[in-house]
Amino acid sequence: MTNARSRVAGRVAAAVRALAAGGLAVLLLAGCSGDAGSTETTASCDRGGCTDIPLETIEDVSGLDLPEGTEVVESTYDSFQDWHLGATLLLPEGAEDPVAASEDDWDGVADDEGVHRTVEATTQDGRTTLVIEVFTV
């Protein structure tokens, strides 16, 4: 029971830090704490952070509108005083680049809320792989 309380307390503390960092990461924390009876995909979290972040959460935190059929190859989230979301995404064949359509800048420079966004894109066999990072410092 004490370990469960510690995990909940850690998530609450992380939520408070996230709010102070601009509030975007609160969406991610919701992905880590799904209801016991829920059938929704939730992230796998421990004291070191989260992995297996659901695609919907990545969209919410990054601000990207990802095309139907996008696959999450790898994803992580961690926070201490700041937070960091990293994800490798495989877009469906022939999909438009969602970063080009984004209202946010993906040049690594902080926006008005102190959130940085970077992306590396490669295309192979008609499918684009995006390696994104969204973080505060």
* Helical residues, percent: 25-40%
Number of strands: 6
What overall geometry do the principal axes of the alpha carbons give?
globular
Overall SS class: alpha+beta
**Main beta sheet:** 6 strands, antiparallel
Using only C-alpha atoms, the radius of gyration works out to 15 Å
Ranges where pLDDT stays below 50 over 5 or more residues in a row are 1-22, 35-39
Q: Could you tell me the mean pLDDT?
A: 80
How is the largest sheet built, in terms of strand order?
A: 1-2-3-4-6-5
What fraction strand? 25-35%
Report the order of strands and helices.
HHEEHEEEE
How many DSSP helices? 3
**How far apart lie the N and C ends?**
34 Å
Please characterize this protein's 3D structure:
With 137 residues, the chain is of the alpha+beta class. The chain has three helices and six strands. The protein has a six-stranded antiparallel beta sheet, with helices on one face. The longest helix is centred in the N-terminal third of the chain and has 19 residues. It is globular. The N terminus is likely disordered.
